[in-house]
Amino acid sequence: MGKKRKTIVCIETGEQFNGTEDAANAIGLSSGFISHQIREGKPIKGFYYYYAGEMLPDERRQKIRNRKKKQNNKPRPVICLETGERFESLTLASRMLGKSKSNVFHAMKNGSAVHGFHFYYGDEPKPVDSFFKPRRRRKIRCTETGVVYESIKDAAERTKISPNCIGSAASGMAGGYHWEYADD
After folding, report:
1. Residue 50 region, left (φ>0) first, then alpha (ψ -120 to 50), else beta?
2. Model-level pTM greater than 0.70?
3. Are 142 and 135 in contact (CB under 8 A)?
4. Contact residues for 102 (Cβ-Cβ < 8 A; gap 6+)
5. What is the tens place of the pLDDT at every residue in 118-163?
6. CA 125, CA 108: separation in Å to the nearest integer?
7. Which runs of consecutive H residues, i.e. helices, occur in the chain?
């Protein structure tokens, strides 16, 4: 049995549709576009629609606007957990790392590391240590030489073979050598 269809209602005309597929066929747009516009409270070909029994578009738009508002439109300070260095904004922290703001933001949100560093907002309490995920480092061995490296990055720097190649070749071949993860 399929998903239950939500009735869609046009505010201006009162016309009703039995789900996004019916509305898409009648309006001449994709169902994904229609559901997106309804969720965002935006018009579709000049008309506003909503799911029957849910918030009207004006209420939904106001809720979205409130969610997106910054406290005072000032950049938020960012602190590096490992070094304690304070950056005046996410932009400055991302420039220092040579990574996009998006990468640093998502790492902060998930507690993961970017280039081995963890970050958090300086205007909020420091998250508990268990929030920050440890850096993933697996030892790797070159089967021909028997040399065990601390990480793929370490092996790449010492052998001048691309880290992507070594990582892809773990249990395979890169740079003329066979590689495998060295489990302790």
Report:
1. beta
2. no
3. no
4. none
5. 899 988 888 888 888 876 667 888 888 888 888 888 888 888 888 7
6. 13
7. 20-27, 31-40, 57-68, 90-97, 101-110, 152-159, 163-169
